[in-house]
Amino acid sequence: MNSLKVLGLSFVLCAAISCKDNQEENKTSSEATEAVENKLTKSISQEKIDSVTQLAANQYLSMAGKIEEGEYPKTFYPKKEEFEASNSGWWTSGFYPGTLLYLYEETGKDTLKQEAERILAHLEREAKNTSTHDLGFMMYCSFGNANRIDPKPEYNDILMESAKSLATRYNDTVKAIRSWDSAPWNKAEKGDLVVIIDNMMNLELLFWAADHSGDERYREIAINHANTTMKNHFRDDYSTYHELIYDEQTGEAKSKITAQGFADESSWARGQAWGLYGYTLMYRETKDQKYLDQAKNIAKFILEHPNMPEDMVPYWDFDAEDIPDDLRDSSAAAVIASALLELYKYTDDENYFNAAEKMLSSLMSEEYLAKQDELGGFLLKHGVGSKPANSEVDVPLTYGDYYFVEALKRYEEL
Asked: Which of 29, 117, 235, 267 could be joined to 318 by an S-S link, Cβ 3.0–4.6 Å?
């Protein structure tokens, strides 16, 4: 009898253990199935990305043959078949070498890297430029990428010098970095301090400098600038003004206006793009939830705006007067797409991924993407620099190309 009881108990225990093992196995299998089901589905094929990347590399190598020593591509005017370049001090000078370096990473073509290095040797002089806030664009998009790909002590030195130059424009009363120097064209007077939303993009250089040098002053400047901008630049719906004018003695915000948008109270598309990208990178560098919330709210404004076109390439201003017949801005779409792909990484919200994917699909279409040997070597048609100033309107833009190639790279890496 005791033997039967022991045998029965053993059978029950074995059955229980077997049942538990089966439950664990089923649970593991279920989790694996769920993981497969939740895997990101991409609609842009690798073949398509490779094709566009190869086109881009060929275009930029072709462009290299069009510029003289000391010139930096700005734009191309299709109607006149006219190529326009700048000098090294112009705010867009870093995008050409930066794009070359991204394309070198994607294709492995040494000629791209060699051309970038040729440009960097000339661009180095701008590290001591204290007359501009655009040193992040100029020096981090160029030397920052070069240093990431092929680290060199001299790149570190140039980047540190650039960060020092940028920090000289910081005002501790306003707690922001001066963007433009006061001038009649930007409506600022003596004693004023101008801050534009674009300046959020230059903070990445300061974070790098803090990490590299251990000097937390650079981080403090970046955080203060972001906080001041978040407090004063944004409306209740999380759209942003383009330009704010502060009293540099009191820190008071005196005027909220535009320079490149349709109107002071309108929402200039690239300004919204700079804000989205800027606060996404602020979260990356600080992991402060308020910056992630800000980025998500800006994204909501952009993606849910009733004037966002079906192809997700925004009009140059969300409140432009001739919608739906007004101009699109491909550069704004490129910046937004790149920012949304990074924001997706921090939120797992597929709405961000899907929107970015739609933007990229549109930018890769014949409507927006140049063919081989078109546009003087540039990539994206239909960029708008400053419509109010009738400057670079409905043309390719060097920064549009840079963020387009960056967005493709980010998409591929997800």
From this structure: 267
